[in-house]
Design goal:
13 helices; binds flavin-adenine dinucleotide; alpha+beta; about 400 residues; binds 3,4-dihydroxybenzoic acid; 8-stranded mixed β-sheet; globular
Length: about 400
Amino acid sequence: MRTQVAIIGAGPSGLLLGQLLHNQGIANVILEQRSGEYVLSRIRAGLIEAGTADLLDRAGVGARLRREGLRHEGIEINFDGKRQRIDLQKLTGKIITVYGQTEITHDLMEARSTAGVPTIYEAAGASLHDIATDQPRVRYHKDGVEGEIVCDFIAGCDGFHGVSRQTIPEAALRHYERVYPFGWLGVLSETPPISPELIYVSHQRGFALCSMRSFTRSRVYIQCRLDDHVEDWPDERFWGELKLRLDPQSASAIVTGSSIEKSIAPLRSFVAEPMRFGRLFLAGDAAHIVPPTGAKGLNLAASDVYYLSQAFAEFYDTGSSAGLDGYSDRALARVWQAERFSWWMTRLLHRFPEDSGFDRRIQRAELEFLASSQSAQAALAENYVGLPY
Ligand code: FAD
Ligand code: DHB
């Protein structure tokens, strides 16, 4: 098979890149190791920046998000039993939208199959070859038969554990990493949200986040131990723990119910530089991970893919590789801003087991400063709603 851009991974990065390239008349094939149903079953991000929503519109897949997404003008930070609202709309003029990653993936999959652009699901053992030449290739197995895609470029959109980044010679990449000493236990349940706006909670028992997917569906996370297992957290224990971490008014608004999904995610900050080797370009979680506290992972994936699609369009329209040569620096400038903010939000709101009494006092002083200072709130809001592309 021959194409212009071979895309590895049908997560949000790969699907959105495929859609943007198709709209620009650039042929592409996506190779995904899992089935479409499996990709859709992964419950992950929920918070969409205005810039990401605009990009989905531009890609022609934003209509349902505009119709069904929940528009949020503010969030709450809850500590010492107090509730501090951050008025995103007033402070930045921008809002955010709650719309599940699963829904975005669904919309992109549907647009792709309607347009008849090929995706090869359940492609096993993908391997990348000749990535430093101008005719790279991807080999894979499907139903026991070997396949090969010959292309001009490869886009590695295969997430943190994918094969693309691992194909780059070790000496050509620098890694920056921080692993946090706790995880997030996430629960999806068919119960109304605890509050109309998202609540981020800093509590001595640990962080909590009350989010939602609709007026009847809650998405809630609590900080847990790294060695915790989902089986350690039956629903009653989960709701009981959440109640202990919330202020009395929010706690009394909890409607408990059985969970539809429950999972534990470790927290990590990670960046691989540069985001290119030869004709292989990395985008999204394949190149960087942020702890989810700042809600930046999916939004960063979208900005990478936007820059990359522009660079490919420039190459095919004019023959210039300036955009491709500048891609890594352009994307990384934004990535590091999101890394900084996500690290800061994580540090501000979680209970770090190794913290001394001094560290805890500093953390509380920072929260009090945030509650009393308009400019501190404005800085948080500016980063939270998303920096311009
Ligand atoms: P992925 O979603 O990981 O997709 C990669 C795809 O590549 C997968 O489908 C995988 O099966 C496939 N693949 C892997 N290896 C291969 C291979 N060898 N061959 C073929 N295919 C392969 N972000 C936000 O912006 N806002 C939020 O509110 C938010 N909340 C989050 C909450 C949680 C609990 C978690 C865990 C994450 C959250 N994120 C959030 C982050 C967001 O989910 C990710 O950043 C996003 O999924 C990245 O998309 P991606 O397409 O780059 O990677
Ligand atoms: C959600 C996840 C996040 O990590 C976050 O910061 C906000 C919302 C969510 O899944 O709704």
